[in-house]
TrEMBL record:
GO MF annotations in UniProt: 3'-5' DNA helicase activity; ATP binding; DNA binding; hydrolase activity
Reaction equation(s) it catalyzes: ATP + H2O = ADP + phosphate + H(+); Couples ATP hydrolysis with the unwinding of duplex DNA by translocating in the 3'-5' direction
Protein name: ATP-dependent DNA helicase
Keywords assigned by UniProt, alphabetized: ATP-binding, DNA-binding, Helicase, Hydrolase, Isomerase, Nucleotide-binding, Nucleus, Signal
Main subcellular localisation: nucleus
Domain Helicase ATP-binding per the UniProt entry, residue ranges: 33-200
Subcellular locations according to the entry: Nucleus
Top-level division of the source organism's lineage: Eukaryota
Entry's family note: Belongs to the helicase family. RecQ subfamily.
An example Gene Ontology CC term for this record: nucleus
Full protein segment contained here: 75 to 604 of 939
Entry cofactors: Zn(2+)
Residue ranges annotated for the Helicase C-terminal domain, each copy included: 224-378
EC code(s) of this entry: 5.6.2.4
Organism: Riccia fluitans
Length: 530
């Protein structure tokens, strides 16, 4: 048995390397994948961006049996399918009428590693569809965004409630539920509704320690919007993207208008805009061609931009789950990020309106309770982080987090001595002689042996590989900080292939370098986690 386990482990690592190019698993991934391979049902509750998808993408590649993945949005599935195909994985989705017939018959032949389906499609599929698929082999059935099954969740979708009807069609196939937010109650709902058996549960901490949380009251006036626009203008000038969430389309329009008037390049995003416009905005934002998006909750799932620096809520969301998820879109790269929530009493008066007429009793009390929790959060004098964590059933590590408005003044950001890293990056930029952008010095620090590095002889330098313990993303973000602080200098040069950015050491950086022959004594304080 030990030998079998070792074989399984090495098969997993080989697949990880071959298809995904990663050298190691994140800790929970290995455990969950092993449990799935052993036929166990699993519940995976982890932050967005933590790598949950790997849990259902890996087993089909190991067992050569199709994985069926239930996902709520076609656009999300299309993105995933495209990404997987680029990695040489046979992925497809069932849900659009035009292609369904061929896809369905190919699926039944076992032609796909991963088959995405909407919940409607899955529940409407015939017994014979499932039995042919099963005959070829099914490695698992995954339910992504599994909180949608729960009336207590913030994104309830009735179509998710019938997924247990798939169980008899897929005997002995492990069911895997995945979500980024779930209170205890929602977790219970998921287990019950999907009829999960002897479930293996993997839950990560909800603490996003790099996010500063703050709450303020406001009024929906043009004066306030102008003030907000000036703030955003200032923040954006310092770099990084900003996402502003509004509760209504009207708010989106008014806030966007105020921003544009102030000279901020901001665009609106809400369900009433055409698909084309929305996609364009999404794309521009992901590519850093657009710094500010003002959106309703319609801008949500599928955003995985790692370097959003600020999320602002113009009005309180309907629940803390929604707030946690939306605010959590900033700072995915682990660097400091800020989440401000502006609320007014009006936000909570709406609760009665939403919860009034059409809802079932259970749903109505769920909506009201969610609002109450959000209201309590807004008016609490306690640590915001502790309040959020406790809401998700987690004990806060400290009573005072030092990184929220109630624990400290907003300008009292925690500073860290980054002298050692600064010394490395500045030295390397200097080595590169101002002839390159930020990529080159970062690649040198990370120990890359790319051709351009060997051609320049940078692989022979003393700094080559010294920055391996930090990611490329981290170094780039750190470089941005040094630029903002004036240690580095960026110039633009026009070349036949377009404008390129060159980075060099600024006067302030030179002074720092020459004053720090002994790095241990130097000090360079930045609001950045080491
Ligand atoms: P989630 O589904 O939890 O939101 P994803 O599955 O989209 O997160 O993964 C987030 C990012 O992390 C993706 O870019 C993914 O390729 C990457 N990732 C996943 N697993 C690993 C790993 N073991 N090593 C490095 N990167 C990983
Ligand atoms: Zn705090």
């Amino acid at each position: 048995e030990i030998k079998a386990e070792a074989n399984e482990a090495s098969a997993m690592e080989a697949v990880l390397k071959e298809f995904f190019g990663y050298g190691s698993f994140r800790p929970f991934q290995k455990e969950v994948i092993s449990e799935i391979l052993n036929g166990k049902d699993c519940l995976v509750v982890m932050a967005t961006g933590s790598g949950k998808s790997m849990c259902y993408q890996m087993p089909p590649l190991i067992t050569k049996k199709t994985a069926v993945v239930i996902s709520p949005l076609i656009s999300l599935m299309q993105d995933q399918v495209m990404g997987l195909r680029l990695r040489g994985i046979r992925a497809e989705f069932l849900g659009s009428a035009q292609t369904d017939l061929t896809v369905s018959s190919r699926a039944q032949m076992g032609e796909f590693d991963i088959l995405y389906m909407t919940p409607e499609k899955a529940c409407a599929s015939s017994a014979s569809f499932w039995s042919s698929l099963l005959h070829r082999g099914v490695s698992l059935l995954a339910v992504d965004e599994a909180h949608c099954v729960s009336e207590w969740g913030h994104d309830f979708r009735p179509e998710y409630q019938n997924l247990d009807t798939l169980r008899p069609h897929l005997p002995r196939v492990p069911f895997v539920a995945l979500t980024a937010t779930a209170t205890h109650r929602v977790r219970e709902d998921i287990v019950n509704s999907l009829n999960l058996q002897e479930v293996f549960t993997a839950v990560s901490s909800f603490d996003r320690s790099n996010i500063f949380y703050g709450v303020k009251t406001f009024n929906r006036t043009s004066a306030f919007r102008e003030e907000l626009a000036r703030e955003v203008h200032k923040d954006v000038a310092e770099g990084g993207s900003t996402l502003i969430y509004c509760t209504t389309v009207k708010d989106v329009r008014e806030v966007t208008e105020a921003l544009v008037k102030t000279g901020v390049d901001a665009r609106p995003y809400h369900a009433q805009l055409s698909n084309r416009l929305r996609e364009e905005t999404h794309r521009a934002f992901s590519r850093d061609e657009l710094q500010v998006v003002v959106a309703t909750v319609a801008f949500g799932m599928g955003i995985d931009k790692p370097d959003i620096r600020r999320v602002i809520h113009y009005g309180c969301p309907k629940s803390l789950e929604a707030y946690y998820q939306e605010s959590g879109r900033c700072g995915r790269d682990g660097l400091p990020a800020t989440s401000w929530l502006y609320f007014t009493r009006q936000d909570f008066l709406k609760a009665d309106f939403y919860a009034s007429a059409t809802l079932s009793d259970a749903r109505r009390s769920a909506v009201l309770e969610a609002y109450t929790a959000a209201q309590r959060y807004c008016s609490s004098p306690d640590c915001r982080r502790a309040t959020l964590l406790e809401y998700f059933g987690e004990k806060s590590p400290r009573k005072n987090c030092g990184n929220c408005d109630n624990c400290c003044r907003p300008d009292g950001l925690q500073l860290h001595n980054m002298a050692e890293a600064a010394h490395l990056l500045l030295t390397t930029v200097k080595l590169c002689g101002g002839r390159w952008g930020m990529n080159m010095p970062v690649d040198v620090l990370r120990g890359s042996n790319a051709r351009k590095i060997i051609e320049q002889g940078y692989d022979k330098s003393a700094v080559h590989g010294l920055g391996r313990n930090k990611s490329v993303l981290w170094w780039k973000a750190f470089g941005d900080q040094l630029l903002i602080q004036g240690y580095l200098l960026e110039t633009r040069k026009t070349t036949p292939v377009g404008q390129i950015r060159l980075v060099s050491v600024a006067f302030k950086g030179e002074t720092f370098l020459s004053s720090t022959s002994c790095v241990g004594e130097a000090s360079l304080m930045l609001p950045l986690s080491p």
